[in-house]
Every structure is written in C-alpha cells, then in structure tokens.
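Fold Annotation — chain and its backbone

Encoding — discrete vocabulary of local shapes
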Amino acid sequence: MNKVIGFFFSIIFFFSCDDFMDPYPNGGYSTEDIWEYQNIVQGLIGQAYRFMPTNYNTNEGAYLDGATDDAVITSTTNAIRRLAVGALPSSADPFDSSWQRDYNAIYSVNLFLKDRKGYNTRFLVDEHLNSLVRNRLQGEAFALRAWFLWDLLQKFGGRGTDGNMLGVPVLLEPVEIEAAKDLVRNSYDDCVKRIIADCDSAYKYLPIANRDFLVTNVIDKAYAGSRYWGRFDGITTVALKAIVYLTWASPRFNPSNDVSRWDSAAVNAKKVIDFKLTVDNVTNGFNPANAVNWFNPNFPGIVFGSRYVNANDAMERLFYPGGFQGNGVIGATQDLVDAFPMKNGYPKEHPLGAELYNPQDPYANRDPRFYSIIFHNNANAVRSTGTGAGQTMYTFENWDGGKDAPGPIDNSRTNYHIKKFVFMGLNWSDNSPNRQPHSKFYIRWAHMCLAFAEAANQVAGPTDDARYGLSAKSAIAYLRKRKTYDGTNGFTTDPYLDEIAAAGKVAFNDFVKNERRIETCFEGIRFFDLRRWTTSVDELNRPVRRAKIIKNADNSFEYDLDVEVEKRVFPSAYLPIPYNEMLRTNNLVQNEGWDSWK
C-alpha cells in the first residue's frame, strides 16, 4: 500500500484552468499519517482526475472509431485495427492499461472515503469555508468512483463464459488492484446500481454547478465556483446517470425492454437540458444555437470536460495527410459519408434527397455539417483566422495517383481525411504556427439531447411533449438547426424532421441513431453504441468501404463509392477481460468469445 501512496505523492498535480492543486512533498507516508496533511488528502482526489484522458488522440477517442464503421486506421499493425479485423493477440491488448488505471483511481478515492477520514479532515480554519471544501471533495470522491466504475463497466462488462451478464469487480474499500488475487465480477445490473448510488451520493455534497454566478458570497469564490470548472459538480452526476441508464435500457442489456430504464435516461437527460437552457444561459453563457468550439476548454456547451493541453497540434497532426505535414493516421469511411443527408435535410436515398444527389459529384449539396467534419476529394483547407483568413492553405487530391490517395503511410486508406477537431487557423508553414488548446469534452449538451431523444422516443414516441415537457423531435431539432463547427447555418427549415417524426417510433429511432452517428463521430462513442444497440455479433461484422476516384483528362472525376477497404471480424460483441488479469487472479470469468484469453 505504501508503494501506491508514495507514487501518488511524488507527482505534482495541476489543473490547467487553475492551480488549486498544490504540489505534494516527496517522501514516505503511510495510510495512517497522511490525514495530518490536508494537501495530501486533497491529492487523493486530484490524482483520480489525472487518470482521465485530455484529448481525442487516444484509444478511447478517435482511434476507437477505427473499430467501427466510421473510420479506418492507416497502420495495419495498430492494436485497435487488429481488434477490428480479428487479429488481436493478448499481448497487445489496448485496454489492459485501462483496467489498471481505473482501479488505481478507485483506490485513491476509496482511501479518501474510508471511514469518512477524508471528509473529517480539517482543510481550513474557517468553519464555513472548511465545509465548502470538504463537501466538494466528498462529492467528487463519490462521483469519481462512479465515473471510473462506469468506464470499467462500459469496456469490460459483458456476457461471461458462464452465461451470465457480468460487470466488473465492485471495490468499495481501498484495495490495491495489483495485489488482489480473489476478485469476483459483480453482475452487470449490480454495477449499474452502484454507479447510480454513487452519483446520488455525490449529488448530495456537490454544488449544482461550478459557476461563479451561482456563488453569492464573494469570499466563497476562493473555494467554490468557476475555478473548479473541469471537476465534478451536481449537474455532471445527473448527466452521467443519463448516460448509464441509456446503455442499461438498450437492447443488449435490457432484453425484457424494461421501459422504466428508458424513462430514467430521459428524465435525467432532461434535467441537464433544462439546466443548460434556464440556468446556464447567462450573459455570454450557453446558447444552443452556437457552434461547438473544440478549441475553447471553457466552451459553455460542455457539461464535463478534461483539463486542456495548451498550444497543441496533436489532432491536426493526427488527421491531416502527409502532404500537409500530418500523419494521416485515421480516415473516415464511405459508410460515414453516406450517413450525411443532403442540404435540404433529406437522406440521399429519399426521393427529395435524390433530386439533389449526383453520383459523379457526390460531395455537392450535402448537409452543411458534412463540410465541417470530413475533408473529401478536391476539398480546400481554408484558413479561418489571422492574416490570410479565407485563403486556401491546401487542396486535397484523393484520386488515384493524387498526393493524398492511399499508399503512403501518412495518408488515409479511405480517400477521406478528418476535419473535426482540426483548427483551421493552423498552418505549420507559418513563422509562428497558431496552435490552440485541445481538450476532451466528455459530456456535451449534444450528448444530452441525443440521449433524451433516444430514450423519450422509446417511452412516448417522437412528438409527445407532455410527458417530459420536451419531445424527442424537439431535442433533435436543437442539433440540426445549430451552427456547424465551421460556423455555417444548420437546417433553418427541416421538413424531413417533421416527416420522420410522423412516421412513428421505429423510424424515428433509426433516425436518432444516424443523428448520433453524425454528432459523435471520432469521439470514441460509436464503438459502444453499436454494441448496446445490437444483439448479435454478426451485426458488427460487416465490411467497411472507401471511395475509389479516377481523374479524367478533362479534370472531371469518376467515383466508385462501394469499394471494400476492410472487413470487421469481432470474435465477440464484448471486449475481453485483460489476459494479464485472468492469469494473475483466481476467480475472474472471461467474456464470451475470448476462450484463448483464459
């Protein structure tokens, strides 16, 4: 145990939005004497935050979409790509570290929570201010335990080889995961109930939101308010509940279709929606019509986000091709491109969408969101700000023989490159390249609208606004009429939304799934969405497609948009329990489909 404590306190903790976590002294501390040092006690909570990813360039972000029908990873030796094609060896498990990380975070907060020692620590002399600090930390401890248990459940929960739907071991005591030999997986349902209980416990201690305008006493702002933006607050725990209930209500985990789970997802998502619309819409605050600003770690559309990495170009390097000094590590699929409707809002398969679709000019007249997310053949990368704003920095040549076509290790394999998360004011050829902050928006306003629409539709249908005070249709309308990431207008009129809502629950459910696909692509969400929606692994094992493009002598193009680029071959709908954990412990049951990982 002292080994772990020593590790915690040898690290300097910080949050980029403020320096409220002080550095801790090196040296040996036991679990008995750390309670004499209030900074170290606070560090137990700070350490847990430090385990969270801070950008989308990870196996929990954009790379994970490479194991879905939305993206293809360029490197054929990448572990996520090997997972996608059924060639992942146990020695290369990309999620092995997640197990250790999450349980180490849970250890830290359990140590704080045990016997209420963290809560009973004296942090400040002033009784009132001390109460602010200890309540916040106690609430954050419960919320963090819920967060990391949910991460474990989402990754490793599944049907075991014993036939039961299993979760992960629930640890409520400070147990060092490396030393635990007799872990037993709790049921999936029990894990969900523990997460919900911890969210409810956290809510009792936390302020509803970390906002200065909610803090009435000026002195309190030193220990409450916006300086704690990026840490858990009450509304974030409600949002987490909505996400957890949504998965628990989905077909894979809800075979009896218990409607109360859908209802709980809708109720909690609606609480977050209402908070953003009626409380967070202060001057210069949240406005649902505004575009998402991926480069503002204080963007009001964030419900919960990571600390930021300043002056960063990781996503630009990740997505741009080699011709524009990027690494082209991931490319969008034709399947994702086809998910975008036309500029009138109708799918291209619909008669009114087909009127606008030209197979030999397939990128014309598309949904305005498309142009803010995907770089296609002959697209321009246009500088968005600064000297030369509006000028073309780069033109994509994805035809056979073009500089951005598949082949080089730094070009996408699909003939599409990704624009989402890319700051269009960055050009590495500038004397002083304009690098912007990057962070990860774990929970956004859009996520809550999507969760509500999906769940409310299951309970009350697309247009009923009496049950929740908002209809599923209206929740989706917020997103379709919002400005794109480029700041262009969304759908100012939306007759297709009216049509599909009138078609009933089943049609609207498929529509919401497609909207969710468009909104959350490359955020590491679709991998789990596909699994919760499906009931057979066969539904996941389909080939994904790319575009093949020929440039003619007259500079016109011929497009074949049905070329298979990669087969998906998943042995199971579930991820495996890490092989190292199966070897190290005695009682863990492996998930089905991973017999060789026992």
